[in-house]
Amino acid sequence: MTARDELRAHLLKHRLAGHDVPTPRQNNLRHYRLFAQGDPKALMGLAPEPRRDQDAVLRLMAERVGVNPDPRYTEGPDSIDPDLTVAALDRLALLLRRTADRRGSVLAGTGHPTRLTRFHAALVRALEAAGCPVRTPARGVRFREPTPDGDRPRYLDTVDRVLVMRALDGPERPGRPGPGDLAHTHSPLPVRLALTALADAGHPRPTWSWATTAGSAGPAASASRPGASRTATTSPRSPPRPTAW
């Protein structure tokens, strides 16, 4: 079995891809509908032109991701094509190799801090070992994030030099982050704030960045696949001194 075959088998075994991924179809369709309606919380920083209707979003996701293309299928598990996933990982590996070869600057961040921070941190360490400078801008910057519960105060922090977001208040209801807790987000604001902080410090945009919500941040940013991610509860701590509100 080749390394590629092993990776494909791993994705299927752990239900990261295949015809029975733990992402409800009805949840996917809801996000497609909100995206088609232009809901800012569903656009993840993108500004699609021309505007797509829900059926067009479904067709695009079927083509790019491998979800079930039948609009009549409305409930149950959805699918992610393992071969499309492996092909996307191949493109990521090529981008990482090019960045390492050029010793380009790196900005890492995630809106899924409880699940993906260790993964991003490993990439950061590998790229730094290859001679890439790692940027960690905007730590301590405060902002208000639009959420289904209204605008919530947040601040940016780093964990193992990976940019993450923490809550400043709450929890607004059980299961939501409280003060100092890591917070899940699909908002483009953290990426925009980080890139603005880099520019203010006189640094160029990073050669390579990896964030959950790149959106319209530009070609230096690369968006990871949104997925179900629970918010962790960590010991509350005082946020660092803010540099902006």
Structure description:
With 245 residues, the protein is of the alpha/beta class. The protein folds into 2 domains: 18-80, no CATH class; 103-223, no CATH class. It is built from 7 helices and 9 strands. It has helices at 3-13, 25-36, 40-43, 54-64, 82-102, 113-129, 189-200; strands spanning 18-24, 77-80, 106-108, 134-135, 142-145, 152-159, 162-167, 208-211, 221-223. A 4-stranded parallel β-sheet has the order 4-3-8-9, covered by helices on one side. Strands 5-6-7 form a 3-stranded antiparallel β-sheet. Helix 1 (3-13) packs across helix 5 (82-102). The radius of gyration is 18 Å and the shape is globular.
Taken as a percent bin, the fraction of beta residues is 15-25%
Order of strands, main sheet, comes to: 4-3-8-9
Largest sheet: 4 strands, parallel
Shape: globular
**CA radius of gyration:** 18 Å
Helix percentage: 25-40%
Helix/strand order: HEHHHEHEHEEEEHEE
By DSSP (H or I, 4+ residues per run), the number of helices equals 7
Helical/strand content category: alpha/beta
Pfam families: Phosphatase
InterPro entries: Phosphatase_SCO2771
Biased composition (Low complexity): 211-236
Region (Disordered): 206-245
